[in-house]
Specification:
2 copies of one chain form a homodimer. Chain A is of the alpha/beta class. The first copy, chain A, has a 6-stranded parallel sheet, with helices on both faces. In chain A, strand 1, helix 1 and strand 2 form a beta-alpha-beta unit. In chain A, helix 1 crosses helix 10 and helix 8 packs across helix 9. The longest helix of chain A is centred in the first third of the chain and has 16 residues. The radius of gyration of chain A is 17 Å and the shape is globular. Chains A and B meet through helix 2, helix 5, helix 7 and helix 8 of A and helix 2, helix 5, helix 7 and helix 8 of B.
Chain lengths: 254, 254
């Protein structure tokens, strides 16, 4: 079976890693849109266009299921992708929400993500529909912090405190609604104290496992739209091993 | 006279502002590539392609001079733009370097900018050619900090200290080689102490004044490739007044 995954950059590799652990025989095609990263601060229209372009590219390999590993794209473009494509499309929002609802005792659930994800209110609406009380907060500095490798220490701590102060003692569960955030998990837990932290990667992998067959040759093809200076280092950091990749310069259809 | 200016986003508006003060009768056309911002972390090839696309768009208005307000694009694409275009092209690097050399007493000059700008070594080479001793440092968190509005206080101070510690007491002049950085100037000065800080916007405006005629209707047209959530707020913050703009969704030529 062939599965396609796309993300605005390298963050979605955390989802890819979890998927490969659950479905080792599947053939995976990953596309990171590093030429246009980040998606989190851009408009709905632009995110939708970029998402369709990424999906089109992956469809050319004959994928039978598409995973949208980017939270912003899942928030803004999932319905559009489901309408436009003939294959199942799995986003990161629903699996994360379902898992949070399962483990949360008081149903007071925090959601942190990019501006785009939080402003779309997709997480908040879904949580409210299912009887939880969400508090959402955009943390725009978390992605650049992680990409700069600053995940512990004084600066990471002050930034975590700056954003999460207003959530502290108000939630029992916290959804990390951005694929970069798991790398800050320790510092976040340290500040938030006794709170369950939900990292969507594993929730998504469980969801995909229900829909997929563990068949194929277990291959992996990585594509990026820009060969950014830090790329091979970040791939190794997240996947835990070096991995070759191809650069495809253009996605624009219009 | 018609002058075109482009930048990866809103930062170049600081250059536009300085230009309009010097040349109030000129008709300005500004393009901010907010759909693909930032440029600073992307590869040379991608920056060159984006720069040509931005220039092409502005040329369609009949501009007679092009200002590259983005430091990363100036560092990677200036020569290519000069070869490809029939009109004069002014970047931000040379004017900033010339001004720094003029005011620096000891010729120990620091340069801070994005990863792209620093890795290109364009500033360092130019300064060395002219007999100065440059020390350069990439400060990737400064742009997101400014865009988040965090320019003073504890977090801004720790981040400034984190990057500039190794430049302190080693330079007498510091070039802010990124159009976002002037907004952090106060915090930078506070940490660096007795150092002259060079903000390229004014240096560029002086250079353009030598090449341009102050003629026209004094109009301004702003274009952005994405209508990002924070855009009108940032335009007002930098230009000091509200300003209407158009969104042009596509630039890709290939």
């Amino acid at each position: 079976m062939k599965i396609g995954i796309f993300d605005s950059g390298v963050g979605g590799l955390t989802v890819l890693k979890a998927l490969r652990e659950e479905l080792p025989s599947v053939d995976f095609f990953y596309l990171g849109d590093t030429a246009r990263v980040p998606y989190g601060s851009k408009s709905k229209e632009t995110i939708q266009r970029y998402s369709l372009e990424c999906a089109d590219f992956l469809l050319s390999f004959g994928i039978e299921l598409l995973v949208v590993a980017c939270n912003t794209a899942s928030a803004y473009a999932l319905d559009l992708l489901r309408e436009s494509l003939a294959i199942p499309v799995v986003g990161v929002v629903e699996p994360g929400v379902e898992y949070a609802l399962k483990i949360s005792k008081g149903k007071r659930i925090g959601v942190i993500g990019t501006k785009g994800t939080v402003q779309s209110a997709v997480y908040q609406n879904l949580l409210r529909e299912r009887g939880a009380q969400p508090i959402a907060k955009a943390c725009p500095l978390f992605v650049p912090l992680v990409e700069e490798g600053i995940v512990k220490g004084r600066i990471a701590q002050s930034v975590v405190e700056y954003y999460l102060e207003e959530l502290k003692d108000k939630v029992d569960t916290l959804i990390l609604a951005c694929t970069h955030y798991p790398l800050l998990k320790e510092t976040i837990k340290e500040f938030m104290g006794d709170v369950d932290v939900v990292d969507s990667a594993h929730a998504v992998a469980q969801k995909v496992k229900e829909l997929a067959r563990n068949e194929g040759n277990g291959t992996l093809k990585l594509f990026f739209t820009d060969n950014s200076p830090n790329l091979s280092h970040l791939i190794k950091l997240i996947l835990g091993q070096e991995q070759s990749y191809e650069t495809i310069p253009i996605l624009c259809k219009l």
